[in-house]
Write a structure and sequence with these properties.
Length: 245
């Protein structure tokens, strides 16, 4: 039997960014490992510049996400006034936005940003290395009831619209834990969990089903929060029925 911590994720808008190139800021169609572990770190009070604690969080816990409603992707057009990088190099540091704009030599940056609307999913974490996992799953679940830092769904402009209702379930497989969690699911008034859902997961855990699995690469393994660096990992995908365990 394995313990799993289940976390409900819903918001009118979410932004689970992928690789950002040029003016386009895309979003994945489901929560990323880095976003969910970032929420865990925020709830526990782990700062981004605490590299040791962030590395232990990355190495100590496994991650999965079950998509109950895929939602709709929209694109927002942004214009941002900023100061040319050559002007900023003249200063040792800039403390505030006002200090930055007082440098002069302003320019306008254009960007397009994708947001995922009305997306419903359940994230799941478990301990995969007991020596590196600093917190029990019960401590993680409890921290979501009184988080140290604000929680958001990928981007700071996208807070959760409902409590995440984090809880710990002990089960013999990943699928069994997820099915137990969504029994009597009452996240949104009138929302019905579909019979077949999309499940994304990592290796090293008993998944509890034999459905065909697709493997894809995803760059959301945390290398450094402070330097905003990530690496690739294998993400496994399957369509499963939640009416059968």
């Amino acid at each position: 039997m394995t313990k799993f911590c289940l976390i409900n994720l819903y918001g009118p808008m979410a932004g689970y960014g992928g690789i950002a190139v040029g003016e386009m800021r895309s979003s994945w169609s489901r929560p990323s490992r880095s976003a969910v572990l970032g929420m865990v770190a925020a709830a526990l009070g782990i700062r981004r510049d605490d590299e040791e604690a962030q590395n232990k969080l990355q190495a100590g816990y496994g991650f999965s996400v079950m998509v109950l409603q895929s939602g709709t992707m929209i694109q927002d057009f942004h214009t941002i006034q900023s100061v040319h990088s050559s002007s900023l190099k003249k200063l040792n540091h800039v403390m505030t936005r006002k200090d930055e704009m007082n440098v002069g030599d302003t320019e306008t940056i254009l960007s397009r940003r994708e947001y995922l609307c009305d997306h419903v999913s359940v994230a799941c974490v478990w301990i995969r290395d007991a020596e590196l996992a600093q917190f029990s799953l019960e401590e993680i679940a409890a921290s979501f009831r009184n988080p140290v830092f604000c929680l958001y769904l990928g981007r700071k402009s996208c807070p959760p619209a409902l409590p995440v209702h984090a809880r710990v379930i002990q089960a013999d497989s990943l699928k069994s834990a997820l099915v137990q969690h969504i029994e009597g699911f009452d996240l949104l008034n009138g929302f019905r969990v579909p019979d077949r859902v999309s499940l994304y997961f990592e290796d090293g855990i008993d998944i509890g089903f034999d459905e065909p699995v697709m493997v894809m690469k995803r760059r959301d393994n945390i290398l450094s929060r402070s330097r905003w660096q990530f690496s690739d990992r294998n993400e496994y995908y399957a369509r499963i029925s939640v009416s059968e365990v």
